[in-house]
Amino acid sequence: MIRIRQIKVKLEKNNLDEIKKQVAQTIKISKEQILDLKLVKQSIDARKKDQIFYVYEVDVKIKEENKILKKNRSKDTLIAPIEQYIFPKKGTVKLKHRPVIVGSGPAGLFSAYLLAQEGYQPLVIERGDKIEERIKRVEEFWTTGNLDIHSNVQFGEGGAGTFSDGKLNTLVKDKNYRMKKVFEIFVENGAPKEIMYEYKPHIGTDILRKVVINMRKKIIEFGGSFHYRTCLTNIFYENKILKAIEVNHQEIINCNVLILAIGHSARDTFEMLYNKKIEMISKPFAIGIRIQHPQEMINKSQYGEKSKYLPPASYKLTYKASNGRGVYSFCMCPGGYVVNASSEKGLLAINGMSNYKRDSDNANSAIVVTVSNNDFGNHPLDGMKYQKALEEKAYQLGNRNIPIQLLKDFNQNKISTEFQRIHPMMKGNYTFSNLNNIFPKEICDSLKEAIGYFGTKIKGYNREDAILAAIESRTSSPIRIIRNQDYESNILGIYPCGEGAGYAGGITTSAMDGMKIAETIIQKYIDNFSNKK
Hints:
By secondary structure, the protein is of the alpha/beta class.
């Protein structure tokens, strides 16, 4: 096949027939000579608001490909490369016990998927519920405020990303095509096929839940198993080699391969691991607020008057404040909701969430400020304690509800009393508060300065009635668990993995890291469980 880049199609004519027509014109053939066409990438060129184009990269099958390629060869017309993920060859060391995976977020699920597919029959332990029950627990929490500390927005099958926008875009370059394999597995399990070529692919929380259920069923079909409401509470090792684990403070499971895909909010697990001498360090992260605007306003700013023909627009903003702090938008959710994402009693944290159609009235995004050891100290657990202290302030300020404030009042340091033209799109109860009372002054100053600047980039961004909510504190793990060149911790047999361990940031990179760990185990060990349960 031939790969052709920079195929531009006018917004009003965006369809497969027009794409074929533009391809034919580009390589000087008739449209009828195209035997097959596959979309590889799709993006939107909106630099000129009066001339918006879809831009495609496509693979086409045509007669006499070599002859046509010779006439048209350029940087944008070339032989389609082979982009295929290759499973690693199995090792020779026999495993004594089934691999155990702690956590069923993207890193844990994709580790389990590959291991199960290759015959290793992994056991996945998850402190929360399976999706079907977890949804009920979360909906109850949003309605009543009654928090289940074991099963919530952070904990449970699918991980924290299950109650998010389901964004899959990443800047990671991967010559082994793990990212493509991640997308293929998602599609095989019910995700929209468009994620294979969209520039900013997303699944949406509603569809992602179904995909996770299908992945679980496949893992079980392959020979894996899941234990829910099962929390890792201890590890046992000799001579720095893993021997067993304890779950729920009572059951001992013999184990010589343990994948730690615990997520960024498993604070009790981090403390246990630290006390068991697992090497870890604190790492920088970011904290801030979520800001809501009308989605229509964002659409018009990004696309102009033709926005009604396009999907809900997103944005990405960065700024360096005068005090030296970096400020940036994070986890932007077009047509989404701000959600109460708390996981501990007496603490409050928020996140953003969108369904696949992104059809709520508001756009929301975290606007966060970088923090480092200078803010919270050098002990490995100091960043985690810093998060908790701010989340406690937010909980108390909102009297367990999400504290919110209009931008004008945030700038003037006073409590809001009523909404104006924007009304909140939120999951969970909320109350007017003064967000200045949560953050250190330098964080508030950075937020105010940055939002003012962002108003020069997106018209109306700094409008007085924009709704702020706090606290966005779980942007990434505040901890990195050290691993060696073989991806093991200082206790051999333990494989720190994914966002919680400090090696990923989001669904796709977490899934890819989970695959990487599975590959390492497959390359070392041979499955030995075909007759075991």
